[in-house]
Every structure is written in C-alpha cells, then in structure tokens.
Design goal:
199 residues; alpha+beta; NADH Oxidase; 5-stranded antiparallel beta sheet
Length: 199
C-alpha cells in the first residue's frame, strides 16, 4: 500500500487531453470525493471545504458559463483559443468544483477573534489539501485531470440547480476524464535549494 501511495504522488500530473469515456463508475467517484472531504484536515476542525461534482451535461454547461463570463473582456484573437480550451475541458467526464464556506470561516473568526486574520488563510490551506487529495485519487483510478482557477458569476438559477449556497466561494475547478495524451515532461528544481534538514 505504501508503494501505491508514493507512486500516486509521483504520477499525479496536469493532463489536458481528456474524453468522457468510462473509467470508473459514478458511485466510485462519489466514494472518492466523500473520502477526501471527510479526511481533509482543517484548522480547529472547521471543515470549511465544499465540493460540487458536475457530470454529463452539467459539466458541459459549466464550461459554457465560464466561456461566456470571460469572453467579453477578451480581444478577438483570444476568443477562439479560449473557446477551444474550454471545449476540451467540457469534453471530459466531469469537473469537481472546490468551494470554501465563508459563513463557517466568519463564524470561526467570531468565535476565536485572536485568530481572525489567519482563518481565511487556513481555509485556503485546507482547500489546497482537499484539491490535492481529490486530484491524486482520481488520477490513481485512471483519470487525467488539471487544476483550473476561473471565478465566474453564477446565476441564481444555476446556484439552485447545483446546490451552491450563498456563503460559498469558488476556489478552483478540476476537469477530469480519460486521458488521451501523456503528461508533459516536468522540470524539478534542485531539491537542495528547497529543503533544509537540520539535525
């Protein structure tokens, strides 16, 4: 099991070429995200992470929402390029939306005022752990995925349809699907520059 764990860490990469072909069941996907959410650490056990998993047409709808929300600010020559990129994400099996519940963050700030400034940062740290757990787990099961950071404005209709609560703040998205390409070669900076061990 330990070998599988370390292999999963090494093999988790950004993969952009994905399709909606079957890899594992929707029930298994649900098990994975439940396991990740239940076991992600958070400051003072605040449990601020929230997930929405979009499959099928909901996945396609989401990336159309993203495209429509950003194209107004794009130069003409960039619109088609971005449309191709979002179409590639939409062609995957699904997308995991990562939110943080800022109503919970605010309640923790009120309960522990001496840590008021830190709770927002701690919330994002916990979200990063959750994103990594879900990403690595899905890739371990055979999916390819990449982490994205687009912040659209959701209509009240979409919020109601997808169960998005008022206090939730979108942090990141993870489009995933059956990989069609190998990951790009990754350059790893010298670890001697990044790690100090003191005995």
């Amino acid at each position: 099991m330990s070998g599988d764990f370390y292999s999963a860490i090494e093999e988790r990469r950004s993969i952009y070429g994905i399709t909606d072909e079957f890899v594992i069941s929707d029930e298994r996907i649900e098990e994975i995200v439940q396991l990740a959410v239940a076991n992600t650490p958070s400051a003072f056990n605040s449990q601020t992470g929230r997930l929405v998993v979009l499959l099928g047409n909901s996945n396609k709808d989401f990336w159309q929402v993203i495209f429509e929300s950003i194209k107004e600010g794009l130069a003409e020559e960039h619109i088609e390029k971005n449309k191709r990129k979002f179409n590639a994400f939409a062609s995957g099996y699904g997308t995991v939306l990562f939110f943080e519940d800022y109503e919970v963050v605010a309640s923790m700030q009120e309960k522990f005022p001496s840590f008021h400034e830190q709770f927002t940062e701690w919330s994002h740290q916990s979200s990063g752990i959750l994103q990594y757990l879900v990403w690595t787990s899905l890739e371990y099961e055979g999916f390819g995925a990449s982490l994205q950071h687009y912040i659209p404005t959701f209509s009240s209709e979409i919020c109601q349809q997808w169960g998005i609560q008022k206090g939730w703040k979108l942090i990141a998205q993870l489009p995933f699907g059956k990989p069609t390409v190998a990951p790009r070669e990754k350059e790893i900076q010298s670890l001697d520059l990044r790690i100090i061990i003191v005995k």
